[in-house]
Amino acid sequence: xxxxxxxxxxxxxxxxxxxxxxxxxxxxxxxxxxxxxxxxxxxxxxxxxxxxxxxxxxxxxxxxxxxxxxxxxxxxxxxxxxxxxxxxxxxxxxxxxx
Length: 98
Prior knowledge:
Shape: extended
Structural class: alpha+beta
Protein backbone atom coordinates (compact mmCIF):
# COMPACT_ATOMS: atom_id res chain seq x y z
CA UNK A 1 0.00 0.00 0.00
CA UNK A 2 2.86 2.39 0.81
CA UNK A 3 4.53 1.70 -2.53
CA UNK A 4 1.29 2.59 -4.30
CA UNK A 5 1.08 5.88 -2.34
CA UNK A 6 4.68 6.74 -3.18
CA UNK A 7 4.12 5.92 -6.85
CA UNK A 8 1.01 8.11 -6.90
CA UNK A 9 2.92 10.98 -5.29
CA UNK A 10 5.77 10.65 -7.80
CA UNK A 11 3.39 10.57 -10.77
CA UNK A 12 1.52 13.61 -9.41
CA UNK A 13 4.80 15.52 -8.99
CA UNK A 14 5.92 14.68 -12.53
CA UNK A 15 2.57 15.70 -14.02
CA UNK A 16 2.61 18.97 -12.06
CA UNK A 17 6.13 19.76 -13.23
CA UNK A 18 5.20 18.96 -16.83
CA UNK A 19 2.12 21.19 -16.62
CA UNK A 20 4.17 24.07 -15.21
CA UNK A 21 6.82 23.71 -17.91
CA UNK A 22 4.20 23.57 -20.66
CA UNK A 23 2.33 26.64 -19.38
CA UNK A 24 2.93 29.79 -21.45
CA UNK A 25 5.11 32.45 -19.85
CA UNK A 26 3.29 35.61 -18.76
CA UNK A 27 3.70 38.58 -21.06
CA UNK A 28 5.27 41.85 -19.95
CA UNK A 29 2.22 43.91 -20.94
CA UNK A 30 -0.25 41.91 -18.84
CA UNK A 31 -1.06 43.58 -15.54
CA UNK A 32 -0.90 41.00 -12.79
CA UNK A 33 -3.75 41.32 -10.33
CA UNK A 34 -2.43 40.77 -6.83
CA UNK A 35 -4.45 39.60 -3.85
CA UNK A 36 -3.69 39.45 -0.17
CA UNK A 37 -4.38 35.93 1.09
CA UNK A 38 -4.35 35.03 4.76
CA UNK A 39 -5.81 32.36 7.00
CA UNK A 40 -6.90 31.73 10.55
CA UNK A 41 -8.04 28.62 12.35
CA UNK A 42 -11.36 28.38 10.52
CA UNK A 43 -11.14 30.06 7.13
CA UNK A 44 -9.14 31.82 4.44
CA UNK A 45 -9.26 35.54 3.83
CA UNK A 46 -8.83 36.95 0.34
CA UNK A 47 -8.44 40.73 0.22
CA UNK A 48 -9.93 40.97 3.70
CA UNK A 49 -13.03 38.93 2.84
CA UNK A 50 -13.53 35.64 4.69
CA UNK A 51 -13.82 32.65 2.35
CA UNK A 52 -15.16 29.54 4.03
CA UNK A 53 -14.03 26.22 2.60
CA UNK A 54 -16.55 23.40 2.66
CA UNK A 55 -15.23 20.24 1.09
CA UNK A 56 -16.36 16.70 0.45
CA UNK A 57 -14.52 13.59 -0.56
CA UNK A 58 -15.31 10.92 -3.15
CA UNK A 59 -13.74 7.46 -3.16
CA UNK A 60 -14.08 5.71 -6.53
CA UNK A 61 -13.66 2.26 -5.02
CA UNK A 62 -16.69 2.73 -2.75
CA UNK A 63 -18.94 3.23 -5.78
CA UNK A 64 -17.61 0.79 -8.40
CA UNK A 65 -20.21 1.63 -11.05
CA UNK A 66 -18.80 4.45 -13.26
CA UNK A 67 -22.33 5.17 -14.48
CA UNK A 68 -23.15 6.58 -11.02
CA UNK A 69 -20.03 8.75 -10.60
CA UNK A 70 -21.43 11.80 -12.41
CA UNK A 71 -24.46 11.94 -10.11
CA UNK A 72 -22.29 11.74 -6.99
CA UNK A 73 -19.84 14.38 -8.24
CA UNK A 74 -22.69 16.77 -9.08
CA UNK A 75 -24.11 16.29 -5.59
CA UNK A 76 -20.70 16.98 -4.05
CA UNK A 77 -20.25 20.09 -6.17
CA UNK A 78 -23.60 21.57 -5.14
CA UNK A 79 -23.13 22.41 -1.43
CA UNK A 80 -19.33 22.51 -1.27
CA UNK A 81 -16.62 24.88 -2.52
CA UNK A 82 -14.13 22.06 -3.06
CA UNK A 83 -13.78 18.32 -3.21
CA UNK A 84 -11.13 15.62 -3.25
CA UNK A 85 -11.28 12.39 -5.21
CA UNK A 86 -9.49 9.30 -3.97
CA UNK A 87 -8.89 6.14 -5.92
CA UNK A 88 -6.25 4.27 -7.81
CA UNK A 89 -5.77 5.06 -11.47
CA UNK A 90 -6.85 1.51 -12.26
CA UNK A 91 -10.32 2.44 -11.00
CA UNK A 92 -10.76 5.73 -12.85
CA UNK A 93 -8.75 4.87 -15.97
CA UNK A 94 -9.61 1.42 -17.31
CA UNK A 95 -6.57 -0.46 -18.53
CA UNK A 96 -4.11 1.48 -16.37
CA UNK A 97 -1.33 -0.75 -15.06
CA UNK A 98 -0.65 1.18 -11.82
